[in-house]
Design goal:
The structure is a single chain. The protein is α+β, with helices and mostly antiparallel strands. 41% of the residues lie in helices and 10% in strands. The protein contains three helices and four strands, in the order αββββαα. The protein has a four-stranded antiparallel beta sheet. A hairpin with a 2-residue loop joins strand 1 and strand 2.
Length: 191
Amino acid sequence: AARGTGPAREGRAGAGAGAGEGAGALGVLAYKPVFGDGKVWVDPLTGEAEPPHAIDLPAAVAARMRALADSIEAHPLADPNANPYVSKPWTFRVGGKLYGIDSKGLHLGSFTIPTAVLAFLSMPEGNINEARANQALMAMRADMLRAAARAQTESDFRDAVKEIRQRMEKQHEQQQKQEQPQQGNPRPAQP
């Protein structure tokens, strides 16, 4: 059916089956889209209104299985009889020189670093983000310990100042007590 024709456009008042269905205010009829009208389904490539076609399920499954078989052939599984404790080499050749790592060592073109030497290299262990987070927590902990020590030192300082002040006041009071009786009895002047 051509665009703009068909059962959806035939629903005008007094025309054909369903006349008057969906009539709203001002006598406008509700639009009922159907396949082929372009309102329900439009082919994305051509823009033409076409009803959807049936899918040939056996052909679709066969095409998918062929693609799966091709990918399995391109990436074969490991040998089931291989020793699981020997790692596969991660090496490649460029210009006749071997690069990568295998059980013998790290291959860097014309020379190889043996795996025994690699064992002594210092390398960060674990997750680097976790290590950074741990360092940040340790720095915060150190700050809190320093602040606590500083507060304790300040408290100790205040206590020491208070003790010194009390001792000085006692000494001053004792000194005043010793001077008061002497002020009441003046000594005679010596000739």
